[in-house]
Amino acid sequence: MNFNNFFPWIAQIIFFLGLLPQIRLNLNRKSTKGLSDFLFIGYFYGYSFYMFYVFCLNLPLAHKIMVPLAFFAVLTLVFQRFYYSESKDLGLKIFFIFSILFFIFLLFLSIKNSLFLGHASGWVMMLIWAIYQIPQLLKNYQNRSIKGLSFGLVSMIGFGNFVEFIVALFLGLPPQTYLNNLNGIFVYLIYLVQFIKFK
Predict the structure, then answer these.
(1) What is this structure's pTM?
(2) Structure-model confidence comparison of residues 85 and 106, the more confident one
């Protein structure tokens, strides 16, 4: 197995496994308190656009298998957000319902416009993942606490971004990929400082 086949799997497996500690922490605490709603929205939108990016641009097989698995892990996080919530959150539920309808519409649009939609989805994904962590970082800073946020999630996603950055450069993946990874590495370093400072 050569570099081109092996390392994309490593990065994508890390991203998938990185979500599991947060799911487990939520399950053990029976709560998603401490996590910003924007974190859930960002993961949902980011992975939804990531799916279009992967399949419309025909990225390597590792992406085609692991990104949908990670997307289902994200759906589990969203489910936990509503299941463990003490309030009705009707507005947020309606938002997610309309979001799902929007992505179904994009699915039909992708049939005849796959190349355009793939590139556009990559840029939108990169933009979402550049900003969706900001509310969580600010919340941690304001509360002087990282309670509810899994260090495993943060560390594995940071490491996954580092691995995929190298892979993206070697394989010549679209620029959205490695720019997104650079952002992910930077955000991980901020989280690392917060975990050290607020632990």
Answers:
(1) 0.88
(2) 106
